[in-house]
Design goal:
Radius of gyration of chain A: 22 Å
Shape of chain B: globular
Number of domains of chain B: 2
Strand content of chain B: under 5%
Distance between the termini of chain B: 28 Å
Shape of chain A: globular
CATH class of the largest domain in chain B: Mainly Alpha
Structural class of chain B: mainly alpha
Largest sheet of chain A: 6 strands, mixed
Number of helices of chain A: 12
Radius of gyration of chain B: 26 Å
CATH topology of the largest domain in chain B: ABC transporter involved in vitamin B12 uptake, BtuC
Oligomer: heterodimer
Structural class of chain A: alpha/beta
Order of helices and strands of chain B: EHHHHEHHHHHHHHHEEEEHHHHHHHHH
CATH architecture of the largest domain in chain B: Orthogonal Bundle
Amino acid sequence: MTTMTKTDAPTGTTVLDASGVTMRFGGLTAVRGVDLTVNAGEIVGLIGPNGAGKTTFFNCLTGLYVPTEGKVSYKGTVLPPKPHLVTQAGIARTFQNIRLFANMTVLENVLVGRHTRTKEGLWSALLRLPGYKKAENASRERCMELLEFIGLADKADHLARNLPYGDQRKLEIARALASDPGLLLLDEPTAGMNPQETRVTEELIFAIRDQGIAILVIEHDMRFIFNLCDRVAVLVQGEKLVEGTAPVVQGDERVVAAYLGTPFEGAPGAEEAAEVEAAEATAAGTAKADTTTPTTTEEEDTR
Amino acid sequence: MTTNTALLPLPTTAARATTTAGAALALIGTFLAWTYTDTFPGDLTVTGYPGGLQVLTLISAALTLLFVLSGYSIKGLRWLTPGGTNSPTRLLAIGTLLTTAYTVIAVILTKDDNENLLGVVELEPGAWVSLVGALVAAVAALGLPNDQPVDDTATGAFSRFLGSLRAPAPARAKALPAWAEILIIAVAFGVALEVFTYGIDTEYAELFIGYVIAVAFGFTALTRAGLIARVTALTSKHRNVTLCAALVAAFCFPFTQQNEEYALIGANILIFATVALGLNVVVGLAGLLDLGYVAFLGVGAYAAALVSGSPLSPVGVQFPFWAAVLTGAAVSLVFGVVIGAPTLRLRGDYLAIVTLGFGEIFRLTVNALNGVSGPDLTNGSQGIPSIPDLKLLGFDFGLSHDVGGFTLGRSANYYLLMLLFTAVVVLVFRRSGESRIGRAWVAIREDETAATAMGINAFRLKLLAFALGATLAGLAGTVQAHVSYTVTPEQYQFAGSVPPNSVFLLAAVVLGGMGTLSGPLVGAALLYLIPAKLQFMQDYQLFLFGIALILLMRFRPEGLVADRRKQLEFHETGQLDVPPDTPLTDTAAGTTKAGA
């Protein structure tokens, strides 16, 4: 585990506290009574098979959905059920399918992220009231800093749609950071990335954490998530199955079952597996790693 | 696989020489007489002095000559073609041919006093000289090599022809001294003003049609040559200078002619353009499709008319003009908020339908408030007539004034007043569009969900855009009431043959270029002028107009004035945004395109 180096950020204080969050769409319960806390300076992972309700849960946290039951509070205050107010309170997010403002420049995208932290209204812009220029320049400066941090400063004038895929993901993170959040929600930040890009993203998330921003991340890439997170929660069919450090979650049978299914009656047992293994080992001295016993996450890694 | 071969298999040198000769011949032909009779309007009978449609052929042929000579890399002409060289030549040659051919056909088909067609016998040799010259030039121009390689999968003759008209985007221009760049801008505006006034001045239908043909091909040719891009680059570099130049050019318009009618056209164009710019806030920036926008113009006009002191106004008060303007704007603002608050919760198509409904509700309500089917507030379909002329600081807008040797009539007075309003609206549009609020609008247009997740209160900002747009339209309405003497409900329809109505306003915005400053102004000017000049077509007016719109949207979907974004959105080539040192690979561009 590489994440054990804690920073000076005050740990222990609860940033996000979701208790008993339930989301129903008509007869379908997408999320059922999920409790989750994120503490300051922590990276928490949220995993689960497809359709487990991870993104729905995210949407409940960010006010995109109003949870049917339960409440979500941020630093002790209950969050209002409106996305823009949640962002204003200090929770920023990215989206699973990239949702940049495609026809705006990179810098403009980040400037939009500054929206809640600036106040200049229409009159100020029309009449160029004192302070307008100053605020505008301060915003630009801060956004250029962020682009510098994320490594896109030299592309500030490009249209967002013209960026390569990896850069678009990064830009989404920069845009979220522009609202000076205390908690950053990342929805599959490495989806579709190659291993190198994934590693870069990992570094980036650590760097963000080091700035004192708590992070909640949904991901399918198990190696990535177990490297990254201090704690991992597993969501299966809308319910939280288990929560704990990486080894705890990796070792949990129910998690394995949730991803790969329970062995059926008469499924190849350990002995058969050993037999097969021995046979294979004799057949080709190389294929040693392949066993029929399901190891935790190989399946997911091949995504 | 791409190919660079020309459309016609001619040796390049021969093709170029023939084009030159043909263009020169067409040019010379315009100095000869084209017809024997003066039945055809615009003196085509004089030798040595081109007139009417001959002038168009003359200019077209002269431009063709210039561009083909530029193809010889003659020193001092190369600045003409920073983009394509042969494609503009081709376009201009074809334009010359079409203009000339149209003139010849128009002469042949003209009826004399006895209702007989003039026929071919009435043509003098000059017409044949120009026609043959233009034809030779156009055919030879097809033999010039393509500027840009064309897919040889494009096998159809027409698609190969279209491909041969493509041209590369010009490279970045060398920076000139600031005064020189500003001079270029000034000259460009002078030319634009000249072309524009010529269009308004066209006195008969044949000349206007010829003008449209020549300008359409000429403008496209200049675009292909990269000159438009060069000028656009300059104007975006010196934006304040450009705005001033445009303002000065517009200010000079009533002084360039003494015709009251043209000044009235100018004033109406300004009203139309101002409202279109207001609509551009709503549609272009915030992305809210408003199909009932003309209602806000009507609200402003009615508010101003009611307090204008018109003897037939049911409200018997007379406000000073500034108060009337504020009243009009305020009432429009209130209407904007009242209509916007419930409707802006809808998205996309639903919003369009509801705004369409509200636009019609306005007209019908005004019609009904006539004292019979409702309280008498607006005189119903009678409208409010005889709105008195404005008097500002002792200046009577209804009278003619002599200013420095120029006579400014009533319409010219209103034109200048409206110009002031337009300048204000331009300022509002520019400043709001560039601000934090403007960015939030564009973000909402691009992706509303993501925008709200960035902390933007989408509903409030949409309402703000809606209210601002309504206010700007109301402002224009207050002047419109005075310019047109009368306000009636029928002026504020959803669709009709006379702008401004909701459809024309939207067309002006889309046609001109959504989200741009100059786009709606240009679009409005064209949309006002073309129907006004097409009036002789009577029943076919809207039909032809529709065809023109379809053609424009087919060949220039981003609008006449494209902002960088739209340019990239509709045309994959010419990635202006990507600096040459880091070109995007094809695959990356493909992925982002698919992902976006």
